Amino acid sequence: MPKKSIKSLKLFKKLSAVTPGGVNSPFRSFHEMQMPTLIFLKGNGSKIWDIDGNCCLDYLGAWGPAILGHAHPEVIKEARKAIEDSPVLGVSTPWEFEMASLVQKAFPSMEMIRFVNSGAEAVEAAIRLARGGTKRSLLVRFEGGYHGHGDSVLWTYGPEEHHPIKETGVPKGMAEETVCVPFNDFQTLDEVFKKQGEEIAALLVEPITGSMGVILPQPGFLEKCRELTTQVGAILIFDEVLTGFRVALGGAQERFKIKADLTCLGKILGGGFPAGAYGGRKDLMEKLAPLGYVYQAGTFSGNPITMRAGACAVRLLSRTGVYEKLEKKTKTLLSGIKQTAEKKGIPVQTPHAGSLFSILFSEKPVLNFQDSLKIDVKRYLVFFQKMLENGILFPPSASDAAVVSLAHTSIEIEQTITIFSKICNFSTKKLTSGRGERI
Ligand SMILES: Cc1ncc(COP(=O)(O)O)c(C=O)c1O
């Protein structure tokens, strides 16, 4: 914890009295890191400032969106113009077409697009569309994946003793319409499709996972997902809310050259404003209201601020060399961390794709949810607290993904490695608790 955090502590207490856990999204809680949640005021470039005036180099990146760094001047200028012209009109605007064209260019599989306001909304709508489009209801997805807080994607979120199904509020019927398979498990996936293929509406996959650590698909795994869904006439949904515009401009589908039937986007898409989108095959998208019977709507969907700021961000990201630069910075950071940890005898895995990465204190590579349950959470806790004391913010959760932005300088990356080597003694003796509530 930064030395001077009096204002944060006081305000967090007050916030906790009016908001469950003191946070408006459980991710933000520092609970798993066994410390009070700090309260932040502003961000600029690679840094954010808390209300006590402590400045942190930020590898959280707002959980993904801040790929250009915080408050990029060109994006803010565009958003300002949109605000002056009225932030919400509730009617169609030219910015929706401009934004859709930019998204389509990056994601050619999205023949038609709908804009919504969050990743969770995009995923829920895509699942409904797949169900309506196939006239089937079974959803297959992967254990430990995160797709937002919709009923269809929550029920197996963690062991029964931590999350008694009845108390989660997810209807039993919803749970019965979902099958969960371990990520990267070819055989189980094959078996499920063999047994229940005719009932499957959709296979929902994060092509590269984030919340159980950055896990890359084993060679051929996404191809297997494509092949099985095509065989049984199910819809392949890529949840690229985290990976879209992050691991490449065209997301994981550009990296792995796989065409999804439906794709979900969010985070970076809005240039820092609330955003989500789903889209894909024209024949499916035309089943949405007002053309078809699948309903989805929203007062703020495609609002001018998000469309104009988002289009500006996507244009900036489309410049030559952006993703090479991001990958280079990330590789420098991670090889520094890995080499330092190895010298000190600390087992660490540093999986990454582009500028999306995880620091997983584990002897073995993490390939699925069960592996992610074995990572050394106590070691991460000390890492998190000590890095924060030294002005560097990582995700307050041992298995979540971190990010590098275009605003991070080589000097800042070197400083991060130097600080890591200074704090790298990692006594975890006095710690009692393990993994937090999220799993
Ligand atoms: C892969 C994935 N899907 C969906 C979501 C939900 O997005 P949002 O928080 O914008 O609702 C997230 C958020 O972290 C995500 O990482």
Comma- or semicolon-separated keywords:
439 residues; alpha/beta; Aspartate Aminotransferase, domain 2; 2 domains; 13% strand; globular; disordered C terminus
Please provide a brief summary of the model.
It contains 15 helices and 14 strands. By secondary structure, it is of the alpha/beta class. The protein has a seven-stranded mixed β-sheet, sandwiched between helices. It has a four-stranded mixed β-sheet with strand order 1-2-3-13.
Q: Label the CATH architecture of the largest domain.
A: 3-Layer(aba) Sandwich
Rounded average pLDDT: 94
Shape summary: globular
Ligands (ions, cofactors included): pyridoxal-5'-phosphate
**Helix and strand element order:** HEEEHHEHEHHEHEHEHEEHHHEEHHEEH
What strand order characterises the main sheet? 4-10-9-8-7-5-6
What would you say this structure looks like, in words?
The chain is 37% helix and 13% strand. It has a seven-stranded mixed beta sheet with strand order 4-10-9-8-7-5-6, sandwiched between helices. A hairpin with a 4-residue loop joins strand 2 and strand 3. It has two domains: 6-70 and 322-423, Aspartate Aminotransferase, domain 1 (Alpha-Beta Complex), CATH 3.90.1150.10; 73-317, Aspartate Aminotransferase, domain 2 (3-Layer(aba) Sandwich), CATH 3.40.640. The chain has helices at 6-18, 73-84, 94-106, 119-134, 165-168, 172-176, 186-196, 221-232, 251-256, 282-285, 304-317, 322-343, 369-372, 377-389, 410-423, and strands at residues 40-44, 47-50, 55-58, 112-116, 138-142, 178-181, 200-205, 235-239, 262-266, 276-280, 352-353, 356-357, 392-393, 402-403. The protein is built from 15 helices and 14 strands. The protein is an alpha/beta fold. The structure holds pyridoxal-5'-phosphate.
